[in-house]
Amino acid sequence: MAFTGSALRIQCDENLQSMLVGTVMRKIKSRTWKKQRHFMLQDDCMTIWYQSKKAGNAHSTFSVSDVEAVREGHQSEVLLSIAEEFPPERCFTLVFRGRRGNLDLVAESEAEAQSWIKGLRKLIENVENMGERERLDQWIGDWFKKADKNHDGRMNFREVRDLLKMMNVDMNEHHAHRLFTMADKSQSGSLEDDEFVLFYKMLTQRGDLLRVFQEFSTDGQKLSLTDLQDFLQDEQLQIEDTQSQAQELMLKYEPSDAAKQMKAMSFDGFLMYLGSVEGNIFDPRCRGLYQDMEQPLNHYFISSSHNTYLMEDQLRGHSSVEGYIRALNRGCRCVEVDCWDGANGEPIVYHGHTFTSKILFKDVVNAVGKYAFKVSPFPVIMSIENHCSVEQQRVMAQHLANILGDKLLKTTLDGKPPIGLPSPHELRGKILVKAKKMGGLEERFCGLGEDSLTAEVSDEDEAAEMDDEGIHRDSLRRRVMKSKQRLSKELSDCVVYCKSVHFRSFKHARIHSKFYEVASFTESKARKQLKEAGAEFVMHNARQLTRVYPSGFRTDSSNYIPQEMWNVGCQIVALNFQTAGEGMDLNDGLFSQNGGCGYILKPAFMRDAEKRFDPDNPQKLDGYQPLILTIQVISGQQLPKVNIKEGSIVDPLVRVEIHGVPQDQNKQETRWIENNGFNPVWYDTLRFTIHVPELALVRFVVEDYDKTSKNDFVGQYTLPLSCMQQGYRHIHLLSKDGTSIPPSSLFVHVRITQL
């Protein structure tokens, strides 16, 4: 397949030339598993090939587009464990997208390591900067390579037939042969580069888009500037300066210079525009930082992780600092640290009284310090569950101070008695500790501070909460009976704005609680409160922070649905980031806006402690204005194959789910289309009434229908209703892991009207 423009540009790079030749490096899995493998960049400048000794498979490959980052030196636990054997200059780590494990490598020399580090970074940058046209060329090239079984650079009809099955197309042989013959311009009985591109274009003709194009085209052949303006205004409901917008889109997406000179857009240009960021369902204006970041901390939903150190389940799972790095790189702003006494006076982090592996507290602090502000400048909260002796608590305080330095918030921002929580903007670049504390924040300003080096505090932790839920393991019961714990002054002093306290009742909190106190609830305890006193819960959260975490029964690290907690204004709704599924889809959807910074401003009616918002009775809200959301699911494009059985083709259906206040919870489905995952067409219309649009998330799920068993998951996409663009839009689907699966998409029409 021919190189894309970018690939041609990067062929001259000497690092890439070296990668094309190939290098022998050590692949490291542990201190004892270190094996030599031959790594080589393929000619497409997109695929890395490496020799593998797995049974029946002589080699493995991965795509550059799967690599998220390249870390230099000893920047993984595996490479740190062999640090004495191999110098950092020869070591690097490939971090993959989603939940796939890292690839740790050691080159034979520093020069070879640099060649791969620089070369890979250039390739990753190239992928990220690809235009729509180049992405399409790349995609076509990938299919050509998959289909060209004998690697002769051309495709015969048998290879084309196999390709159609791979692409989820159930097409009768006669029609497939007709397309093949039409594309075979050279009449050679096989398709080469340009002929395959023609075949692909005939295969992917978009009748659904052509219909829209011709509806707005005056002559049926092109869109004039006025035609495109009308389309943007009448269909896409864009109101700001549609003339200059239309001109910009023509310049950006029209491939024909002749059409550009005529100030027109061809069907190809229209196709490119609707597949782009501007044609996406997610409003580009919500992508960057657009919210007010100067409100008190408790006025924001905060992206939060539970058992951050775990990579798997809560009984025997692997603990790793990688959990912290991954969560922080996903915009998480509150991480959990379970601390226990370790050997040699060093505190350790693990899930207590289980067989999960253990890591050093100081390694966790190092990772948090290093990665806290890579993707977001706003504060990170370390939620510490402290089970340590006074001596090891002092070691914890030393590590926090020595490793984090100025990043650790050790006093109020201006050194004066505070009257409320500071804002994310004021706390930029700061790491806050949430933990138990001796006395209150005011006491240090009134000379009433605790003089002793230790004090007793009530032992509030997840083990105690789990006992409330009825888990009666002996080890946990012993812990709960010890209701008082000694606390070191040094660790207590690290807590400023997030003092962990026990929740008694909303009435007690209203009278006695301080703005800097944070109560933690298990999901079941929070659910009980929101059902019995939803409006009270909202008002409580308008005054102070609340943390919710998964039930102790979830030993598989599964997640609850966070929406019901957000409905009452809970800010720190902690989820198991390591577990893919609906809970994390909603979390990713909510926090995909506002620059992915991990803080989302709560609606105004949830920020005023005097206003009464009851999520169970939204009609009582001042300014109540429900909306009608109408979604026409038109078509799907190149859906991934989920069943590996030979000849199996997807039978897709689309489910649209509304997640919001109880009255808004709803889901509707299209019919299923038999044997067509390549270009299914529905034209099915789904309608929803939405009472509290400010809290609503919309989740699109594609499934492979199965009449005898549970449907298989194909892809999904979740976004806030407030970030949804109207009109004709593409939805670029994500895998179960939350990673993109180009070019799989849905084409929909969206209308939002007042009831």
From TrEMBL:
- Alphabetized UniProt keyword annotations: Calcium, Cytoplasm, Endoplasmic reticulum, Glycoprotein, Hydrolase, Lipid degradation, Lipid metabolism, Membrane, Metal-binding, Nucleus, Repeat, Transducer
Location, primary (coarse class): cytoplasm
Gene Ontology BP annotations: intracellular signal transduction; lipid catabolic process
For the ligand (Ca(2+) 4), the binding residues are 649, 651, 675
Domain EF-hand, residue spans: 135-170, 171-206
Residue ranges annotated for the PH domain, each copy included: 17-125
Localisation per UniProt entry: Cytoplasm; Endoplasmic reticulum; Membrane; Nucleus
Membrane topology value = Peripheral membrane protein
Binding residues for substrate? 27-54, 434, 436, 520, 547
Question: Where does the C2 domain start and stop, copy by copy?
Answer: 607-735
Stored SMART domains:
C2 (SM00239), EFh (SM00054), PH (SM00233), PLCXc (SM00148), PLCYc (SM00149)
Which residue positions are annotated as catalytic? 306, 351
List of residues binding Ca(2+) 5: 704-706
InterPro entries on file: C2_dom (IPR000008), C2_domain_sf (IPR035892), EF-hand-dom_pair (IPR011992), EF_Hand_1_Ca_BS (IPR018247), EF_hand_dom (IPR002048), PH-like_dom_sf (IPR011993), PH_domain (IPR001849), PI-PLC_fam (IPR001192)
What's the superkingdom here?
Eukaryota
> Would you name any one GO CC term?
endoplasmic reticulum
Cofactor binding comment, as recorded: Binds 3 Ca(2+) ions per subunit. Two of the Ca(2+) ions are bound to the C2 domain.
Give EC number(s), comma-separated: 3.1.4.11
Question: Is this entry keyworded Ubl conjugation?
Answer: no
- PANTHER family under this entry? 1-PHOSPHATIDYLINOSITOL 4,5-BISPHOSPHATE PHOSPHODIESTERASE DELTA-4 (PTHR10336:SF31), PHOSPHOINOSITIDE-SPECIFIC PHOSPHOLIPASE C FAMILY PROTEIN (PTHR10336)
| Name by which UniProt lists this protein | Phosphoinositide phospholipase C
